[in-house]
């Protein structure tokens, strides 16, 4: 019985929590701006690879910018499958970070606001976050993935600001 | 309380029944042992089996072949949830591929609510979703000159900027990307991604011999057989000594 309950809860944890479109509508009050894109080439590609410890999954990254806020929809591998995150940055600090789609069978606890709240207000110190993020037992790889994406989105926000 | 007496008769019984119990396993151990002893002579370490029954014992299986499209002599196909460019895995998709074309030196692949852009070498450029204005419920994909076309349930859409923006089309475009049958030779190339060379016969005989072929309790069965062999040896010596005394 316990096995059935545990299996059901892990299957239930997989899926789309919020679509990309709904995330952008929420961030920009139903009037999201037109998207912009960055090509990961040259030094930028190397810097991104350094932050993630591996190349990013695609050659092009898309972002949205309006009223001093940038929104990013990025993917990072948890254990085997990619997790889709939505991140909002304002004035070099994370305003919001969410799990939009979770495809793994473990580590979904990172979606809870009680956990993501730790990232709010975080900024970059070098290429790392300016604070330590408390882990979750059994969700270490998902926590690492979310931390990497927080660092990457802050770095890219800085990059587009200086472009 | 009844006293248990060890008699020649009871030892004979133990010897007889353990002998019957282990004889099948002894034959099995002897045959697999002979094969293992001559691994190099028989070249078992260089021979591989792709028998589905044996591969299933190793949890190696081939997912179902789903859709396939031909683009510039390259096959875009989906096996299980893995999408391939020829025999190279490129991305995962739980939903069917609707169409695949080459456009502006990029591979454009449409799935239900997404457009996936790849380089001609198969590197992922970007996935365009409804957040980028891609129409939902895509049913067909095509291209003509500098325009990309999508057909949804009730409309045809066109884009002149590599799928960044879509507008309703009033053209009568009708040259959609369609599924093709993938030749067996190409399918076999993809199979090697999932199955590798198969399982080496040396590994197979070794796992048969040590019981690892039955995951979990195979080694415990072999342990029980080993205990039976100890019993048969001890009881055999016991019987021999008792008979010698008379």
Give an account of the 3D structure:
The complex is a heterodimer of chains A (163) and B (246). By secondary structure, chain A is α+β, with helices and mostly antiparallel strands. Chain A has helices at 2-13, 20-27, 42-52, 113-116, 140-162, and strands spanning 15-16, 36-39, 60-66, 69-77, 82-90, 93-102, 124-125, 128-129. Helices cover 36% and strands 28% of the residues of chain A. Chain B is an alpha+beta fold and 246 residues long. Chain B has two domains: 8-59 and 198-245; 65-195, Methylamine Dehydrogenase, Chain H (7 Propeller). The longest helix of chain B is centred in the first third of the chain and has 30 residues, at 8-37. The two termini of chain B are 31 Å apart. The mean pLDDT of chain B is 89.
List strands and helices in order, with pairings.
The complex is a heterodimer of chains A (163) and B (246).
Chain A: H1 2-13, E1 15-16, H2 20-27, E2 36-39, H3 42-52, E3 60-66, E4 69-77, E5 82-90, E6 93-102, H4 113-116, E7 124-125, E8 128-129, H5 140-162
Antiparallel strand pairs in A: 1-6, 2-3, 3-4, 4-5, 5-6, 7-8
Chain B: H1 8-37, H2 39-42, E1 48-49, H3 52-57, E2 65-71, E3 74-79, E4 82-85, E5 88-92, E6 97-103, E7 106-111, E8 114-119, E9 124-128, E10 140-144, E11 147-151, E12 156-159, E13 167-168, H4 184-195, E14 199-200, H5 201-210, H6 218-245
Antiparallel strand pairs in B: 1-14, 2-3, 3-4, 4-5, 6-7, 7-8, 8-9, 10-11, 11-12, 12-13
